[in-house]
């Protein structure tokens, strides 16, 4: 399975963001990937502290999703991207990842569970958390678990996704810059790959606010593709044989004692 991770920064101008997203999808599609992964909140950037993204939110049949579905059909590539989705709580939408198949069909939506109430920011003032349940979608014969940005700091979610069958963890993010934040990002991505013996695919926003450093990590914690700081994309191949080999050599999932139902 070939995956392209796109790195770019969004603004609160949704029309401009859709144009940017489409440009990068078209560029990445030149590599004929099975899946193109875009960052968290690529439909519209977060509001400043004390602001609101409520008026920017859309339903899953709105213009942003429709544009992604059209691009997926044209390029015959699945797409995963982040948006703000209208919720039943007025003015407090969900921070949602949507997965669109190569036919344009909506395969699933993950609503961010762990809102970023840390490092001086309070995402829960603007957004509504999703239900506490893992979301796994199947693309090109592989099972992908969806998680968003701050979720990376909660290993129980990644383990729940792997227990639900995920072979790949997909982590779109808008990882805020700051002292040691880039180190945290890279360390936690590698840790989630190593402890779960799975691939991790991370597409991040960049620019003045966010760290960038989008990458794909294999089940041994080795970065096999990366973007750096600038706008761009990187392509990597997810190898089922590599995954099986690592899990044979390091059967830590089979050897665990906690969280395993006794028989």
UniProtKB/TrEMBL annotation:
The keyword Hydrolase applies. Residues 1-240 form the CN hydrolase domain. InterPro entries: C-N_Hydrolase, C-N_Hydrolase_sf, UPF0012_CS. Keywords: Hydrolase. It comes from Kribbella deserti. It comes from the Bacteria. Pfam families: CN_hydrolase (PF00795). Signal peptide: none annotated. GO terms for molecular function: hydrolase activity. This is Carbon-nitrogen hydrolase family protein. The keyword Nucleus does not apply. Belongs to the carbon-nitrogen hydrolase superfamily. NIT1/NIT2 family.
């Amino acid at each position: 399975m070939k995956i392209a991770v796109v790195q770019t920064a969004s603004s609160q101008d949704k029309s401009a963001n859709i144009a940017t997203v489409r440009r990068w999808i078209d560029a990445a599609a030149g590599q004929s990937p099975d899946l193109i992964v875009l960052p968290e909140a690529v439909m519209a950037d977060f509001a400043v502290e004390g602001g609101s993204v409520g008026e920017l939110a859309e339903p899953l049949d709105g213009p942003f999703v429709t544009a992604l579905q059209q691009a997926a059909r044209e390029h015959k590539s699945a797409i995963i991207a982040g948006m703000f989705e209208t919720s039943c709580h007025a003015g407090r939408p969900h921070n949602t990842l949507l997965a669109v198949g190569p036919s344009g069909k909506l395969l699933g939506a993950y609503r961010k569970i762990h809102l970023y109430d840390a490092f001086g920011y309070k995402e829960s003032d603007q957004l509504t958390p999703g239900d506490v349940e893992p979301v796994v979608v199947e693309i090109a014969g592989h099972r992908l678990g969806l998680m968003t940005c701050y979720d990376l700091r909660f290993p129980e979610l990644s383990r729940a996704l792997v227990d639900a069958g995920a072979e790949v963890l997909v982590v779109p993010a808008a990882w805020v810059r700051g002292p040691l934040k880039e180190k945290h990002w890279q360390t936690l991505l590698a840790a989630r790959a190593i402890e779960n013996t799975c691939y991790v695919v991370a597409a991040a926003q960049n620019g003045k606010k966010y760290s960038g450093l989008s990458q794909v990590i294999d089940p041994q914690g080795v970065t096999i593709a990366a973007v750096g700081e600038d706008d761009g994309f990187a392509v990597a191949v997810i190898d089922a044989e590599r995954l099986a080999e690592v899990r044979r050599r390091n059967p830590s999932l089979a050897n665990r004692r906690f969280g395993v139902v006794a028989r």
